[in-house]
Design brief:
Helix content is 52%, strand content 11%. By secondary structure, the protein is of the alpha+beta class. It folds into 2 domains: 11-123, Immunoglobulin-like (Sandwich), CATH 2.60.40; 131-195 and 285-484, no CATH class. It is elongated, with a radius of gyration of 31 Å.
Length: 488
């Protein structure tokens, strides 16, 4: 390895047989590790100890031809074998805070400031976070960007959550998240269909108006009709027929656009009221569709690496490394996919709910683990992304109110079926957000207390089913979601 101060080494093999200073660098990025205490080991025997300077370089020269390894603090037991669960990586068998190769394997170079130097790659906490973050990005992204279609992304997220629980039942939150994320996908599908119908209505009306106007010109100015027919390539009769067909298509498109019916109830008392309401509704639906997709993806990019890290490295390493996660953001050569602005939600913050969640999982207190992760999911992540967006808050509240009042044309019930499909079930697997008309008109998903009551109720029911005879039904539903994403 080399750096910007390197000069040509005429006889590297000969140089390698002598002593050199070591430069501590992070294995993943190659960034120097400055001002860090280190220990050089031969086997388990200490050869020497020291502290790197501001450039990560040792003050002493070290013999680099023997199989010495370097460790930085804190020290962890040498890993004997990797854990086969999430995507496999060369880091899985390597020890945290230890060099990923011996000094004898590292190539020396001559530095204009330090003389002979050997860069020693260390497996740091940041290396591991990069590894798990990139694994999450590969599921929801492509080429450093989110997969464009939120519904396609959502299905991949649902599948991954379900697979995590199926492979390790301790991750009970992931199982519940598969159902909850599936329901987000159902909402995305509803928003998408509604927006598509609204756009289709606008296009059909425009086409019908153009066709009708053309026939009107034919009728009002018959002398110009031959010239128009020559110019357009169609006859008066053909234009009349097209106007009729476009009119029928416009009527059909208008019937599909259920927002037109809903807008009658909230129409502003002006001549242009309906247009104003429909335009605002369209913008709200479009914005809400995008924000739900962003929230779904951002939550996944936050929690998937936490699960992967804990499962493959253990609780002690997670505890030691959690605060370093935020440091991998902002590296120009190794960018992190984070769909939301740092001003809205900073990447990788070590929220207080995270470690208690995985400690509970480690102790077998799975329901407690779900509760801690639910707090993290709702209060730290989704509250900042989704429930602070007044467009989405308004759309969710409008959906709830209209559905409570009985208009189900474009609305959906606020509920969580613990099943693979979108529709509610009649077998005790559906958890409802509200109970009765008054509750439906006063409770709001954007209210964190109302929302957490709903989430805890779902978590409790999920835990009951897993502990009872219904566990098989839950497992079958999660297998189906793992197979097809569950949004249908």
């Amino acid at each position: 390895m080399s750096n910007e101060n390197s000069i040509y080494c005429h006889d590297c093999q000969k140089v390698a047989k002598r002593v050199a200073r070591i430069r501590l660098v992070a294995d993943y990025t190659g960034k120097p590790i400055p001002n860090k205490a280190y220990t050089v080991l031969k086997g388990e025997a200490i050869v020497t100890q020291g502290v790197s300077d501001g450039n990560g370089v040792s003050s002493e020269e070290i013999l680099t031809t023997i199989p010495l390894f370097v460790e930085i603090s804190p020290r962890f037991p040498v890993r004997k074998e990797g854990v086969k669960f999430f995507k496999q990586h060369r880091y899985d068998n390597l020890t945290l805070n230890r060099s990923t190769k011996s000094l004898a394997e590292c190539k020396p170079y001559l530095d204009k400031i330090y003389g002979k130097v050997v860069d020693v790659p260390i497996l740091t906490a940041e290396c591991l976070w990069h590894r798990y973050q990139k694994e999450a990005e590969e599921i929801v992204g492509q080429g450093g960007e989110l997969i464009a279609d939120p519904i396609v992304r959502n299905k991949r997220i649902n599948q991954t959550y379900a697979k995590i629980w199926l492979k390790d039942n301790r991750f009970q939150w992931a199982g519940l998240a598969a159902f909850a994320s599936k329901q987000v996908g159902c909402g995305l599908l509803n928003f998408s269909d509604t927006v598509e119908n609204m756009e289709g209505d606008v296009v059909a009306k425009s086409r019908a108006m153009v066709s009708a106007a053309k026939v009107g010109v034919h009728s009002a100015l018959p002398l110009f009709s031959p010239f128009m027919s020559t110019f357009s390539g169609t006859t008066f009769i053909q234009d009349i027929d097209k106007a009729i067909q476009d009119g029928k298509a416009s009527i059909a498109a208008s019937k599909k656009n259920k927002v037109t019916e809903v807008s009658k109830y909230i129409q502003i008392a002006t001549v242009s009221g309906a247009v104003t309401v429909e335009g605002a509704t369209y913008a709200t639906f479009k914005r809400s569709f995008n924000m739900m997709g962003i929230g779904n993806a951002t939550l996944f990019l936050d929690v998937y690496p936490l699960h992967a890290f804990y499962h493959q490295r253990g609780l002690k390493e997670l505890e030691a490394c959690l605060r370093d996660r935020k440091n991998i953001y902002g590296h120009s050569q190794f960018p992190i996919l984070w769909p939301i602005g740092q001003d809205k939600l900073e990447f990788g913050l070590p929220f207080k709910e995270i470690l208690p969640a995985f400690k509970a999982i480690d102790e077998g207190k799975l329901a407690d683990g779900v509760r801690h992760l639910a707090d993290h999911e709702q209060k730290n992540i989704l509250e900042a992304i989704m429930y602070s967006d007044w467009w989405l808050v308004g759309a969710l509240w409008g959906n709830q109110v209209f559905h409570t009042l009985g208009d189900t044309s474009i609305t959906q019930p606020v509920e969580l079926p613990l099943a693979a499909q979108c529709k509610s079930t009649n077998d005790g697997r559906t958890i409802e957000f509200t109970n009765g008309i008054l509750d439906g008109l006063t409770s709001r998903l954007s209210n964190v207390e109302n929302r957490m009551e709903f989430v805890y109720k779902a978590a409790t029911r999920f835990d009951e089913m897993l502990r009872g005879d219904e566990r098989r039904v839950i497992a079958e539903s999660l297998k189906e979601i793992a197979s097809n994403g569950g949004v249908k």
